[in-house]
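User: Okay, second chain of the day. Same drill as before: sequence in, structure tokens out.
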Amino acid sequence: MDVITRLAALLVAILLAIDAFSGERTETLRVDRHTLTHGSSWRHDDTYRLHFIGGRVESCEVGWSAFNALADGDEVSVDTSRVFKSCDGIRRGDEAVARPNARKWFMLIPIAILLAAAFGLIQFERSVDDDRRWWFG
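Assistant: Same drill. Structure tokens below.
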């Protein structure tokens, strides 16, 4: 792997680590509206999204119970990650409407792969002399 690709892998790994493990940012927002997007008919993959006003987070994808628990105009506290602004939790007063998921712990997998690539432990390229370089596998 060339130097630029290794530096890019290191930079992305650092950004993911900062996003996953730095402290959350909490904002007090007001629910503006609800949107429901229906997925394919055979999977029943509906997407429930709450839209907010009054902060840097515009919307969050939530589950069905959080979607129905909040009404337009409700004031909520939204916990977000610092780098990519992903929603980690929503609270109304002391009630947790949407709880944080295990996203932070699953981020360890791509962080580890990117760090291994950045330090040269994983090589994604083959040499020009290798006959298999034009084939998958």
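The beta strands are 25-37, 47-53, 59-62, 75-80, 87-92, 95-98.

User: Thanks, on to the next one.
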